[in-house]
């Protein structure tokens, strides 16, 4: 409760610090060139050299079959004695990577490695040659190398401690690009800028900034897209000039509620119409303090336990009805709710009720 209360108390200060939110940003920070994108790769491989923390071959059938197939490709026949394999130094893993745009053949990319079977620790293992496939089934990169998990663990007779996840790791520059994804900027007669956060006002401001610098070459076609006519110009140079232009992004009024954790995030443009708010809970506290009744010496009595019950009722009658005037700001709303002693859980209910009453002039999203 204390960390959440501290967060609520810090909200007004954070809002004041971010008060003049009309900060300008570069176009490259809010929009991407359509077609210039990453592509996801995935592969299945084996990690070897583990200190007895690999898969159990008797239960992880896919690991045993993969190990037998790999040894056969290397000229070692283990088919006849497959069921006798009992090593714990091998683990089956899934390897994932992002192939960046314009990655050329021979360049290197990072890969992530995650255990697939019942391996308990991949630290110290080495990934064997693993082809990485794209969504079309083609091999675009090949990965191999020693992986690092960053996990630390210590274990004693009666206690153990572990920090990090030992069954997932990374290999820096662990894959070599074998196939390029063809995409040429040169020769394009038009380009499309795609906004990361769709907003029509922001799209129009981007088009206006580009036209103010280069003439009437940009048009905002929808909240996510700005079409740019190249007119035979040097496209890399043109994009390099455009992405440095600065605009002021706009945002819609929105309230995000994470009900599981009690987190509330509200945009700066959230407004509240005139509304009265009262909040209170009935709390009943029952305390049992039994006492022992002891008879007097040499008397014909018996020791008995006498119940003692204390009941306290808190109806929070000290709280009063609060009125928020028309078009209060986010900071005024938070200050008003804090003055009523409203906790985060109650604040979620109040915001939902204000929205239901039609007084919250913002989009309310509950997750």
Automatic annotation (TrEMBL):
<comment type="similarity">
    <text>Belongs to the FlgI family.</text>
</comment>
<dbReference type="Pfam" id="PF02119">
    <property type="entry name" value="FlgI"/>
</dbReference>
<keyword id="KW-0282">Flagellum</keyword>
<comment type="subunit">
    <text>The basal body constitutes a major portion of the flagellar organelle and consists of four rings (L,P,S, and M) mounted on a central rod.</text>
</comment>
<protein>
    <recommendedName>
        <fullName>Flagellar P-ring protein</fullName>
    </recommendedName>
</protein>
<comment type="function">
    <text>Assembles around the rod to form the L-ring and probably protects the motor/basal body from shearing forces during rotation.</text>
</comment>
<feature type="signal peptide">
    <location>
        <begin position="1"/>
        <end position="23"/>
    </location>
</feature>
<dbReference type="InterPro" id="IPR001782">
    <property type="entry name" value="Flag_FlgI"/>
</dbReference>
<keyword id="KW-0969">Cilium</keyword>
<keyword id="KW-0732">Signal</keyword>
<keyword id="KW-0975">Bacterial flagellum</keyword>
<keyword id="KW-0966">Cell projection</keyword>
<keyword id="KW-0574">Periplasm</keyword>
């Amino acid at each position: 409760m204390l960390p959440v209360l501290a967060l609520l108390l810090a909200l007004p200060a954070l809002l004041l610090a971010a008060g003049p939110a009309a900060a300008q940003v570069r176009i490259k920070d809010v929009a991407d060139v359509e077609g210039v994108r990453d592509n996801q790769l995935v592969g299945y491989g084996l990690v070897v050299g583990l200190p007895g923390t690999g898969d159990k071959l008797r239960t992880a059938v896919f690991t045993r079959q993969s190990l037998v197939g790999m040894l056969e490709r290397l000229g070692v026949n283990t088919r006849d004695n497959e069921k006798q394999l009992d090593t714990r130094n091998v683990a089956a893993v899934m390897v994932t990577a992002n192939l960046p745009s314009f990655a050329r053949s021979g360049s290197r990319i990072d890969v992530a490695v995650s255990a697939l079977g019942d391996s308990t620790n991949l630290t110290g293992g080495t990934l064997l040659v693993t082809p990485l496939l794209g969504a079309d089934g083609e091999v675009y990169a090949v990965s191999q190398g020693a992986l690092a998990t960053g996990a630390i663990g210590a274990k004693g007779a009666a206690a153990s401690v572990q920090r990090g996840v030992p069954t997932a790791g990374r290999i820096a520059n662990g894959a070599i690009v074998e196939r390029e994804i063809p995409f040429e900027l040169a020769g394009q007669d038009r380009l499309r800028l795609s906004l990361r956060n769709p907003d029509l006002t922001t799209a129009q401001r981007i088009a206006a900034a580009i036209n103010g610098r280069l003439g009437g070459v940009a048009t905002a076609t929808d909240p996510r897209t700005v079409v740019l006519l190249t007119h035979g110009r040097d496209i890399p140079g043109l994009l390099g000039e455009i992405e440095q232009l600065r605009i002021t992004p706009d945002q819609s009024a929105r309230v995000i509620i994470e009900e599981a954790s009690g987190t509330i995030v509200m945009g700066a443009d959230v407004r509240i119409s005139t509304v009265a708010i009262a909040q209170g809970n009935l709390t009943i506290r029952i305390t049992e303090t039994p006492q022992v009744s002891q008879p007097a010496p040499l008397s014909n009595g018996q020791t008995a336990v006498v119940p003692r019950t204390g009941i306290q009722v808190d109806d929070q009658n000290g709280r009063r009805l609060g009125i928020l005037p028309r078009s209060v700001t986010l900071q005024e709303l938070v200050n008003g709710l804090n003055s009523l002693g409203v906790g985060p859980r109650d604040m979620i209910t109040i915001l939902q009720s204000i929205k239901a009453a039609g007084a919250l002039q913002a989009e309310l999203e509950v997750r």
